């Protein structure tokens, strides 16, 4: 099939440091190419891809040093380019929330939109009722809850390349890991408390967004000052993750929000590292309880879970990752949705011509 992948422009594809959606688009695009599809990626110029690249901005927005920039203008320009070339493709796969809806409503059946974020926001139901004709894919079943009656045609869990994060059967670190963002909903404060109750060091590899800087200074920095048991590593990229995650005794994922997926959980699994995660959002869909980790509801249970998961079979964790969460598995599932859309369009065309 001829497939267009349309990514957000906030991060490079894949991101140089922290970043979720653009990272998934990179993995999906390359896996589709490897499966024999003809894929075109609409992204910023520094994208690393095996697909044909259509460069729509000189670099991704977040790390662009320009003082004044418009993310809306950047995305509008990209959508114009996609619209100009849309007839070249069997399917246009959008990853930019709903911004394309008004521009492609006359050809919605030609599109698939994967929603990557939380959907419990005040204004969203009106949008998804107004443009109900757009086929949607969720990244977990739980993500759908606020918009149950939208035009969902499938759920595809994220997957990452099988060789991106190597399996580590013998971790040399006796520490717990936290990887993600410093923000109220990610609850790094819980991770610190759990590690201290277990009596193990904690390493925190995390991004501090400008919007969360005050929270970090007020709530988290005091927990780190003078501490010898908690190390703040800062923001890391894919190159540092094998060592960081692979040598950890366990990953702590103590979220306090409806996480749509949680890539870091499968990144840990790829290394063979077990996960202790809060029962929120997609967590029960991603964690195989008693195999790849434990799902907990409070700090006390998390302390007990950390002690338990350190005895888990790391080879079994890696095997579960390979079965459920590789980029190849993700690409196969999306290819089935593309084929489903193509069949529906062919049937509609046949009915119109009859």
UniProtKB/TrEMBL annotation:
<keyword id="KW-0808">Transferase</keyword>
<protein>
    <submittedName>
        <fullName>Glycosyl transferase, group 1</fullName>
    </submittedName>
</protein>
<dbReference type="GO" id="GO:1901135">
    <property type="term" value="P:carbohydrate derivative metabolic process"/>
</dbReference>
<dbReference type="InterPro" id="IPR001296">
    <property type="entry name" value="Glyco_trans_1"/>
</dbReference>
<dbReference type="InterPro" id="IPR028098">
    <property type="entry name" value="Glyco_trans_4-like_N"/>
</dbReference>
<feature type="domain" description="Glycosyl transferase family 1">
    <location>
        <begin position="175"/>
        <end position="310"/>
    </location>
</feature>
<dbReference type="Pfam" id="PF00534">
    <property type="entry name" value="Glycos_transf_1"/>
</dbReference>
<dbReference type="Pfam" id="PF13439">
    <property type="entry name" value="Glyco_transf_4"/>
</dbReference>
<dbReference type="GO" id="GO:0016757">
    <property type="term" value="F:glycosyltransferase activity"/>
</dbReference>
<feature type="domain" description="Glycosyltransferase subfamily 4-like N-terminal">
    <location>
        <begin position="18"/>
        <end position="128"/>
    </location>
</feature>
């Amino acid at each position: 099939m001829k497939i267009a992948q349309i990514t957000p422009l906030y991060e490079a594809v894949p991101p140089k440091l922290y970043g979720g959606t653009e990272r998934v688009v990179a993995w999906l695009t390359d896996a589709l190419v490897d499966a024999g599809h003809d894929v075109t990626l609409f992204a910023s110029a520094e994208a690393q891809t095996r697909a044909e690249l259509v460069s729509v901005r000189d670099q991704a927005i977040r790390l662009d040093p320009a003082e004044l920039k418009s993310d809306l203008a950047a995305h509008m320009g990209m959508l114009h380019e996609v619209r100009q070339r849309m007839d070249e493709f069997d399917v246009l796969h959008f990853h930019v929330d709903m911004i394309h809806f008004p521009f492609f409503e006359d050809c919605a059946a030609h599109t698939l939109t994967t929603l990557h974020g939380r959907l419990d926001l005040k204004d969203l139901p009106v949008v998804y009722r107004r443009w109900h004709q757009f086929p949607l894919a969720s990244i977990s079943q739980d993500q759908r809850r606020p918009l149950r009656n939208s035009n969902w045609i499938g759920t595809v869990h994220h997957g990452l390349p099988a060789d991106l994060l190597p399996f580590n059967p013998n971790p040399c670190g006796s520490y717990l890991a936290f990887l993600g963002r410093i923000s109220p909903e990610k609850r790094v404060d819980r991770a610190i408390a759990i590690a201290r109750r277990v009596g193990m060091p904690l390493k925190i590899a995390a991004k501090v967004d400008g919007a969360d800087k005050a929270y970090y200074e007020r709530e988290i920095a005091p927990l780190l000052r003078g501490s010898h048991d908690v190390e703040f590593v800062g923001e890391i990229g894919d190159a540092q993750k094998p060592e960081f995650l692979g040598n950890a005794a366990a990953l702590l994922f103590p979220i306090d929000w409806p996480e749509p997926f949680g890539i870091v959980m499968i990144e840990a699994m790829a290394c063979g590292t077990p996960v202790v995660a809060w029962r929120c959002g997609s967590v029960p869909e991603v964690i195989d309880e008693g195999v790849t980790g434990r799902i907990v509801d409070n700090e006390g249970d998390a302390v007990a879970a950390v002690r338990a998961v350190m005895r888990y079979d790391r080879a079994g964790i890696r095997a579960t990752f390979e079965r459920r969460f590789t980029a190849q598995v993700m690409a196969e599932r999306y290819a089935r949705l593309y084929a489903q859309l193509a069949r529906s369009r062919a049937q509609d065309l046949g009915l119109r011509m009859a």
